[in-house]
Specification:
The protein is an all-alpha fold. The chain contains 14 helices and no strands.
Length: 337
């Protein structure tokens, strides 16, 4: 049964990797394409290169996360069922939100799915509740909840600085410099996104391989790093334009200067969070919040409040939907073990 489950985990992981790249790439390219800093084709190519590089660099961080986040000691088959259920729930929710054009958090969905499937495992197995509830859920969940507020506030305040620096300068020069910085931010944001994605999926692979009884799972994850990075990069090359259209055209009206503030703020927060602090920041929540923060700081109302409420609803629904779906799938699979 363990062999079948590990095969199913691998089968579900492959589309998850592609959809993760597809779902997250608009966060780095939507505004630069909107303000014509880069052409769509060039933007996705730059994003794909740096995102793939970020995934490859994230392997040590994923191993650190595996050591820090001590997964509950349970039956190997049940552990694999928990991972399989979480991946299946996340894949379904990410596909649904992509076709709805909603910039929801893959990290948020994955954490909620793991928590939901782990809690469901309590019902079917003799596991100490403290093994699951005692895990460090609070730090990543608090980070995900606070990061949109920090991102919005930082972008809003940085607009004041950007406007002050640009005051009296030729508008064409300001726009040219702003577009140039946006072009650079595509690579930096994509690198930070790749680091986040690499940490997530390296952690899941390590848990799954360890549960399947594979000796030295870190070595196996090292070998899998290249195909994982390629699959995510392939998703990035698709562009994710359904979400990108919402971020760049339907959420807020934004000029090149404020677009520069939004993209640079996103790059800084993601790079510091993923590389410096190893925190699971959400690229989608961070990027959407900086766009709204920078776009709101203007003399006229630019935020589409109807669209904002729609996005906020999907943000709130993400942990509920993914966690519930993962729990139901775990209960269903456990009956077959």
């Amino acid at each position: 049964m363990e062999l079948l489950l590990i095969v199913l985990v691998g089968a579900v992981l492959v589309p998850n990797l592609y959809v993760a790249g597809l779902h997250d790439v608009p966060n780095s390219i939507a505004i630069p394409v909107r303000t014509r800093a880069l052409t769509p084709r060039m933007a996705v190519r730059v994003a794909a290169v740096f995102n793939t590089l970020g995934v490859l660099l994230a392997l040590p961080l994923g191993i650190y996360l595996y050591a820090w986040f001590d997964f509950p000691d349970m039956d190997p088959g049940l552990t694999l069922a928990v991972i399989l259920s979480a991946l299946t729930a996340v894949l379904g929710w990410n596909l649904f939100t992509y076709f709805r054009g909603m910039p929801t958090s893959v990290t948020h969905a994955l954490l909620a799915a793991l928590l939901g499937s782990s809690l469901a495992a309590l019902i079917t197995a003799d596991i100490d509740t403290s093994q699951i509830l005692g895990l460090p859920w609070l730090t990543p969940l608090a980070t995900l909840l606070l990061s949109p507020l920090v991102a919005f506030g930082a972008a809003y305040l940085l607009v004041f600085l950007a406007v002050r620096v640009a005051r009296g300068e030729d508008p064409d020069d300001v726009n040219r410099i702003a577009r140039g910085l946006q072009s650079v931010s595509v690579g930096v944001t994509s690198l930070g996104t790749g680091l986040q994605q690499g940490q997530r999926f390296a952690f899941l692979l390590l848990v799954a391989l360890g549960a399947a009884g594979v000796s030295d799972p870190a070595t196996w994850v090292g070998w899998a790093a290249v195909p994982v990075a390629v699959l995510i990069g392939a998703g990035v090359l698709h562009g994710g334009w359904r979400i990108g259209h919402v971020l760049a055209h339907r959420l807020v009206a934004i000029d090149p200067l404020r677009g520069m503030v939004a993209t640079v703020t996103t790059s800084g927060l993601l790079f510091i969070g993923s590389m410096g602090l190893a925190l699971p920041l959400s690229t989608s929540l961070t990027a959407a919040s900086t766009i709204m923060g920078a776009g709101t700081n203007q003399r006229f109302a630019t935020l589409n409040w109807r669209q904002f409420r729609r996005v906020a609803f999907f943000w709130a629904a993400t942990p509920v939907a993914s966690g519930t779906a993962a729990a139901i799938l775990t209960l269903s699979l456990s009956a077959l073990l």
